[in-house]
C-alpha cells in the first residue's frame, strides 16, 4: 500500500507540473502528459511508477473508447451520412496511398514485401486519441479541417479490421484455429444486430425509466454499461472497440438524454485519456532508440513528411482550402494507437521480431510526441498564408443555440413558444422526464439534464450562449445556477423568475441581470384590473404601476415593511 501511495503521489506531482508548464507554453495538456510519462516510465532514470506499461496502456485505451462514444453522441446519423464523401472517399484514399508509399519505404528494411506493406498500412493510421483530444481542447472540432480529420479517422478505425484479418495469412506459424469466413461474418452480423437493438431500443427505454425515478446513480451506471457493452460486442466480433462505442453514441445522439449522458461520462473519459497519454510516454524506450539513432530519426522524419504531403495533396484534390489542408497535414501525420495493437499482434504471430517491435512502438510514440508542436506550427503557418487571425475558426464553428432555458414548467413552455415563434435559436433543459418527452413531442429542443450540474453547462458549451433564462421552481437551485453562471460566464445575460421579493433579492445579489417576482406581479396585475373595472383612467393606472415597479419594487417593500 505504501508503494502504491508513493507511486500515485509521484505520478500526480510530476503530471501536474508538466501539464502546467505545457499549457503555459501554449502547447496544450497532451504534451505535458507525454513528458510526464517519459519521466516516471521504466526507460528513464528517476522514479518508476510501474514497469507494466503494456498492461497500463491496454487498460487506459478504454479512454479512447469513451472519447469515441462522446463523439458519437455529437454525430447524428443524418450528419454522418452527409459526410460519406469525406469518410469513404478522402479517408479511403488517405489510407491506401499512405499505406502503399510507406510500405515501399519499409521494404528497404524488411525482407518480405508483404510484411513491409503491413507495416506501411499500420504506420499510415493516425491517432484518434491525440487528434480528437487536441481538436476538442482547442474548440476546432466543427472547423473544416476538424470535420475532415474526423472523417479520415473514422475510416481508419474501419481499416483496422482488414489489417487484423490479414495477419494470420502473413504468419509463418501453424494455424491453430479452424474458424471459417462464414462463421466470422455471421458473428459480425449478430454483434452488429445486438448493438442496434440495445442502442436504439433497450438502452433508451432503460434511461427513460431511471430518469423518471430521478435516480442519478442508476443513470450513470446505465450510461457506463452502454459504453462497455458496445465495446464488448465489437471486440467479440473482432472489430474495433472504439468503433462500437462510436456507433452506440450515435444511436443515442437522437435521445433527449444525450447532453446528460455526455456530462456524466466526461470525468471518466478525462481521467482515462490522461492515463493513456502518460502510458504512451512510458512506452518510449530511449535505450532502443540510442542503439540506432540515425535510422530511428530517419523513420520518424520520413513518416511525418510523407504523410503530411499526401494528406495535403488529397485535401486540395477534394476542394479544401490551402489553410485547412495545411492544418490537417500537420494534425494527422503521426502514427496512431492502433499501431500498438497491430504491432503486438504481428509480434505474437512471429511476423516481426522483438527488435522491429520495439522500434515500431518507439516510432509511433515519438511521432505522437511531436503532434501538439507540429499542429501549433501548422496552424500558425496556415493562418499567416491565409492572412487571417488565429481565431478565424470561429467563423466556421456551429452556433446552433443562443438562448438556454432552464426548466420546462408552465413558464418554460410559454418562453419556448415565444422564442420559436420569433425564430430565435434556443434549447431547454429539465429533469422531469415526462415534461421533456412532452416538449420533444411538440417539436421543441427540450433535453433531459440537470442545469445545476456544473459539468453539464460545460458540455452544452454555455459560453457560446448569449442569454440564459432560469425558470426553475426550486429557489435554492435557481440561485445556485445564477451564481455559477455569473462567476464563470459573466458575459451571459441572466433572466430569472422568483416566487417572492426575498427570492428575487437573493437572485439579484447572486448576479442575475433581471428578475421578476411572480407573487408581486400577479398582485399588481390583479390590482390593475380591479382599478380598470372600477373606472379609474388608464393613464392613472399606468403611472401607479410604474411607481410600484420603480427601483426594484421599492414602494412595495416599504408597504410590506409597514
TrEMBL record:
Entry keyword Transmembrane: yes
Main location: membrane
Protein keywords: Antiport, Ion transport, Membrane, Potassium, Potassium transport, Transmembrane, Transmembrane helix, Transport
Entry annotated with the keyword Transport: yes
BP GO terms, sorted: potassium ion transport; proton transmembrane transport
One CC-aspect GO term: endomembrane system
Highest taxon of the lineage: Bacteria
Residue ranges annotated for the RCK N-terminal domain, each copy included: 400-521
Localisation: Endomembrane system
GO molecular function: antiporter activity; monoatomic cation transmembrane transporter activity
PROSITE patterns the record matches: RCK_N
UniProt xrefs under SUPFAM superfamilies: NAD(P)-binding Rossmann-fold domains (SSF51735)
Family as reported in the entry's similarity comment: Belongs to the monovalent cation:proton antiporter 2 (CPA2) transporter (TC 2.A.37) family.
Protein name (record): Cation:proton antiporter
Species annotation: Sulfurospirillum diekertiae
Lineage, broadest ranks: Bacteria, Pseudomonadati, Campylobacterota, Epsilonproteobacteria, Campylobacterales
